[in-house]
């Protein structure tokens, strides 16, 4: 019989459910789920802010590129390359 594996989202939901029941101290709860307290607090804060949707995996990609070349300069460079 294979081990019962939980998806990351299922584990987060169970963590939040146990957190809301207040059966364990936060430290013990995090130990039971094998996560750091920092991660536990992050999950709780995401849940408070956005509900269950906040527990979904979030992209680590930056929202915008910090150092993009302005359009005018790009066009000038492309023009120089064509000539």
UniProtKB/TrEMBL annotation:
Annotated Insertion element IS150 protein InsJ-like helix-turn-helix domain residues: 18-63
Pfam families associated with the record: HTH_28 (PF13518)
Leader sequence residues: none
Gene3D superfamilies: Winged helix-like DNA-binding domain superfamily/Winged helix DNA-binding domain
Coiled-coil regions listed: none
Domain of life: Bacteria
Entry-linked InterPro entries: Homeodomain-like_sf (IPR009057), InsJ-like_HTH (IPR055247), WH-like_DNA-bd_sf (IPR036388)
Protein name as catalogued: Helix-turn-helix domain-containing protein
Protein's organism: Pseudomonas delhiensis
């Amino acid at each position: 019989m294979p081990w019962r594996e939980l998806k990351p989202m299922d584990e987060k939901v169970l963590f939040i459910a146990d957190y809301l029941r207040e059966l364990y101290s936060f430290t013990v709860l995090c130990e039971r789920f094998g996560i750091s307290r920092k991660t536990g607090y992050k999950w709780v804060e995401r849940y408070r802010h956005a509900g269950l949707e906040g527990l979904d995996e979030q992209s680590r990609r930056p929202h915008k590129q910090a150092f993009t070349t302005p359009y005018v300069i790009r066009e000038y460079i492309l023009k120089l390359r064509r000539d």
